[in-house]
Write a structure and sequence with these properties.
485 residues
């Protein structure tokens, strides 16, 4: 009995019950958003007639390199059904279903969510090639072993969640410090709010803050990412204070831009370091089942072994960011904005219904939901929802290399007025019939000054740079071809 009491006191962290409850509910909410994004966007991006069809991908890539349920079946109906099932299961866990079923059933529900989302990520190609996809999978895997209301939170899993948070924050801090010189001379935020992939409704105001305040922002970021994360492993209340600082800095990022669920998931991870016993007291739980303790210890050992590669990456001068070292996306390396673009460029798509192209041809512009287009439209808040095509259009403006494989198909779908593709857009200028030609132009965008904003009502000012892609139309084979009209 004494040995069992010792094990329970060592293995269990009863004072973190409320923190676990909030963490699990919030994680289920992120899963819900992620599966909803898949349900709404999969057909156009990765479906049978998508921009990068997953059915072609699974034929080329063996299962062992990209484990996915969709190697077995990859029809649009089946994959979309899986997305909606994941949405429903996430909603069930969000409202507390995991706490009213036996412990083994709760673990199975979380494991099923993880395996389903892994299936999407591993066939998602560039549309799922973001660090927050791996972050959701790694967090989701650890959540399987957090337990439910039947048992106390395992201290091992809480520390593994903190280790994950440490890698997210410290890795991002190191990649900045080692990367663009503007992070070291504290000037990166002279540009970042304007040039970030998808500005939010307050980004214009953040960009117009005084430059000395921008320097303070950068300095505070270095403290939050290079110093504060070590506090997560200190005894309480230091760990709670460190977690609170992480949450505050992430809320600052949430208000200044749209980064999908990256910031939200980082805040969720910080809950693992917050001792909730001063609020709730220390509740009592039933004894931890031996089988559960064995599974938790085995998972912890696996994570420790897999941590070698990301730990080595953190210490390397040639540090990589947002890389997975295994096809299960466990124990990854993270980081963002090692370099900051100074000038914002945007690819603008236009179409016309005229048969012949002349100098007097009237071109009408397609509008995306999130990325800048109409200079008078205030950027919207979409995060934690992820607009995958909008993000890829930002990369396309950086270099045509980022358009390989999918951009021509996008133009083809616009020329066909494909309903699934048009659903990804905010506005199509051809609601009743397809255009005869489409083209892509490159513009330089910048936020207006306060005076320009008062005089014109515009949030952006844009200047034509060059033609990104000349007019194309469907040829006799139904593929986009160059128009010489």
């Amino acid at each position: 009995m004494a040995a069992m009491d010792w094990f329970t006191s060592w293995f269990s962290a009863s004072g973190y019950g409320l923190s676990r409850l909030v963490l699990q509910r919030a994680l289920a909410c992120i899963y819900l958003v992620a599966f909803l994004s898949a349900a709404m966007q999969y057909r156009a991006l990765l479906g049978e007639r998508g921009l990068l069809p997953a059915r072609i991908f699974v034929r080329r890539i063996p299962f062992r390199e990209a484990p996915s349920l969709f190697h077995w079946r990859c029809t649009d109906r089946f994959v979309t059904g899986c997305a909606w099932f994941g949405t429903a299961l996430s909603a069930a866990l969000l409202v507390g279903a995991g706490d009213v079923v036996p412990l083994w059933a709760s673990m199975l529900m979380w494991a099923l969510l993880w395996a389903l989302y892994l299936s999407f990520v591993n066939v998602g190609q560039i549309f799922y090639g973001f660090g927050w996809e791996s972050l959701l999978l790694e967090t989701g895997f650890l959540a399987v072993f957090l337990g439910n209301a039947d048992v106390a939170p395992p201290i091992l899993v809480l520390f593994l969640l903190r280790w994950l948070l440490f890698r997210v924050e410290f890795g991002a801090g190191l990649i900045k410090w080692r990367g663009d010189p503007c992070w070291r001379d504290l000037t990166c935020l002279y540009y970042h709010h304007e040039t970030q992939p998808m500005p939010g409704p307050l980004s214009w105001h953040f960009h117009r803050l005084p430059r000395p305040l921008h320097r303070v922002e950068v300095a505070a970021n270095h403290v939050a990412q290079l110093i504060v994360p070590f506090g997560l492993f200190f005894p309480q209340p230091v760990a709670t204070v460190a977690a609170a600082i992480v949450i505050v800095t992430q809320l600052w990022l949430v208000t200044s831009g749209n980064f999908s669920w990256l910031n939200w998931l980082t805040m969720i991870l910080a809950l693992s370091a917050i001792d909730s016993s001063p609020v709730t007291g220390t509740p009592s739980y039933a004894a931890t089942p031996a089988w559960f303790a064995v599974l938790v210890c085995a998972a912890a050992l696996l994570i420790v072994l897999l941590s070698y590669w990301p730990a080595r990456n953190l210490l390397s001068r040639s540090q990589q960011m947002n890389r997975s070292f295994n096809p299960l996306h466990l124990v990854n390396t993270y980081g963002a904005f090692g370099s900051v673009t100074r000038v914002r460029q945007e690819v603008v798509l236009e179409g016309t219904d005229e048969e012949q192209i002349t100098k007097d041809t009237v071109w009408r512009e397609y509008e995306f939901k999130g990325k800048p287009g109409d200079v008078r439209r205030l950027p919207r808040q979409f995060a934690p929802y992820h607009l995958r095509l909008d993000w890829q259009m930002w990369f396309a403006a950086l270099s045509p290399l980022y358009t390989r494989g999918w951009f021509d198909r996008l133009l083809e779908r616009l020329l066909e007025n494909d309903r699934a593709t048009l659903a990804l857009l905010r506005h199509s200028p051809f609601p009743d019939h397809p255009p005869t030609h489409v083209r892509a132009l490159l513009y330089r965008y910048r936020f207006t000054t306060a005076r320009e904003r008062r005089e014109t009502g515009a949030w952006w000012h844009r200047t034509y740079v060059r033609e990104f892609l000349p007019p194309v139309r469907l040829d006799q084979t139904g593929r986009p071809g160059r128009s010489f009209g």
